[in-house]
Write a sequence for this structure.
C-alpha cells in the first residue's frame, strides 16, 4: 500500500512538473509573439487639435515597427481624464496606450479626484514638446505684449481670451504671466484645441494660446497675429515670433506629447513597445509629417521620461498653487 501511494505521488509530481514546463514555454511563446493584434492609441482630447494630428501621424507610420496596425481612437471629455482613466484601468497587456500631456496626466489629477495619477502609467517615450503661441486677430489694436498689457490695464476684462477647461495647457501658458502683469482678462473655456480654434477664427474671443501645429497655417496666411511664443528661444518654424523673455517677461511653458502604457504591463512587452516607439519617432517620414505640422520631434526615451514625470509633477503642483 505504501509503495502504491508512493508511486502515485511520484506520478502526480511528474505530471505537475510537465504541466508547469508546458505553461512556462507557452508564456514565453505568447511574450515572443507580442503584439499579435492591433494596438489602440487613445487620444484623450477632442478631434481637430494637436493631439489628434500627432496621434494620426504616429499611427500612420508605427505599423512598420510595431508589426501590427496602431489605431488612433478618440476618448475625449472631462479635460482628458476620461481617456486617461480608460487606459489606466485597461487590461495591462500592452494593447492599449495613451497619448498624454500635462493636463491629462498631471494637472487634472492634482485638482480633482481621478481613478489614476501619473504613477498609474509607465512611459513608452516622448514624441516632442511644444510651446504655445499667444495669438490675436490681425486687426487687433496691440502688436506686442507690452501694448497688450497697456490696453488691458486701460480696459479691464474687455479682452476675451479662449482657453481649455480645467487646468489646461493654455491656462498654464497664460495665467502665470497674466498674474505677474496684474492685468484682468475675461476667460472663455472650450473643451479642446479644436473648438478653441474655431471660436477664435470666428472672432468669438480676442486672444488665444495655440500650438504651432494648430495655428500655423493661419499665421502664414496673415489672418492672425502672433505676439509671443512661450519658449526659451525662437523656433525654426516661426523665426519672426519673439519669446516672452525677449519682451521682458520671465515666462515659458511647453506641453509634452508622450505615449504611456498602464504601469503593470509586463517588462518584456514594455521594452518591445519602447523599441518600436524609438524607431517610429526616428523614422524620416514621420519626422517629415511632424515638420509639415510646424512642429519638431524632440525625442526622449521611456526610462528617462519616467524620471522627468516625477520632476514635472512637482513643478506643476507648485505652479497650480500660484494660479
Amino acid at each position: 500500500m505504501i509503495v502504491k501511494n508512493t508511486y502515485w505521488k511520484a506520478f502526480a509530481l511528474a505530471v505537475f512538473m510537465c504541466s508547469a514546463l508546458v505553461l512556462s514555454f507557452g508564456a514565453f511563446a505568447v511574450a515572443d509573439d507580442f503584439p499579435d493584434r492591433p494596438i489602440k492609441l487613445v487620444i484623450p482630447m477632442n478631434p481637430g487639435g494637436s493631439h489628434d494630428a500627432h496621434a494620426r501621424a504616429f499611427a500612420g507610420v508605427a505599423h512598420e515597427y510595431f508589426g501590427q496596425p496602431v489605431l488612433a481612437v478618440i476618448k475625449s471629455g472631462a479635460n482628458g481624464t476620461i481617456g486617461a482613466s480608460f487606459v489606466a484601468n485597461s487590461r495591462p497587456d500592452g494593447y492599449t496606450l495613451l497619448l498624454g500631456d500635462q493636463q491629462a496626466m498631471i494637472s487634472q489629477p492634482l485638482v480633482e479626484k481621478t481613478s489614476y495619477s501619473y504613477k498609474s502609467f509607465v512611459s513608452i517615450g516622448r514624441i516632442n514638446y511644444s510651446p504655445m503661441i499667444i495669438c490675436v486677430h490681425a486687426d487687433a489694436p496691440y502688436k506686442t505684449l507690452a501694448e497688450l498689457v497697456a490696453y488691458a490695464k486701460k480696459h479691464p476684462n474687455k479682452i476675451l481670451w479662449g482657453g481649455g477647461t480645467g487646468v489646461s495647457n493654455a491656462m498654464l501658458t497664460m495665467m502665470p504671466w497674466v498674474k505677474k502683469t496684474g492685468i484682468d482678462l475675461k476667460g472663455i473655456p472650450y473643451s479642446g484645441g479644436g473648438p478653441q480654434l474655431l471660436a477664435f477664427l470666428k472672432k468669438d474671443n480676442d486672444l488665444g494660446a495655440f500650438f504651432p501645429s494648430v495655428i500655423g497655417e493661419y499665421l502664414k496666411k496673415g489672418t492672425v497675429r502672433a505676439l509671443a511664443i512661450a519658449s526659451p528661444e525662437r523656433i525654426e518654424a516661426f523665426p519672426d515670433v519673439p519669446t516672452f523673455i525677449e519682451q521682458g517677461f520671465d515666462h515659458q511653458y511647453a506641453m509634452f506629447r508622450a505615449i504611456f502604457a498602464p504601469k503593470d504591463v509586463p517588462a518584456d512587452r514594455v521594452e518591445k513597445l519602447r523599441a518600436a516607439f524609438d524607431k517610429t519617432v526616428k523614422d524620416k517620414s514621420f519626422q517629415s509629417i511632424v515638420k509639415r505640422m510646424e512642429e519638431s520631434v524632440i525625442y526622449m526615451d521611456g526610462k528617462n521620461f519616467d524620471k522627468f514625470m516625477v520632476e514635472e509633477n512637482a513643478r506643476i503642483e507648485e505652479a497650480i498653487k500660484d494660479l
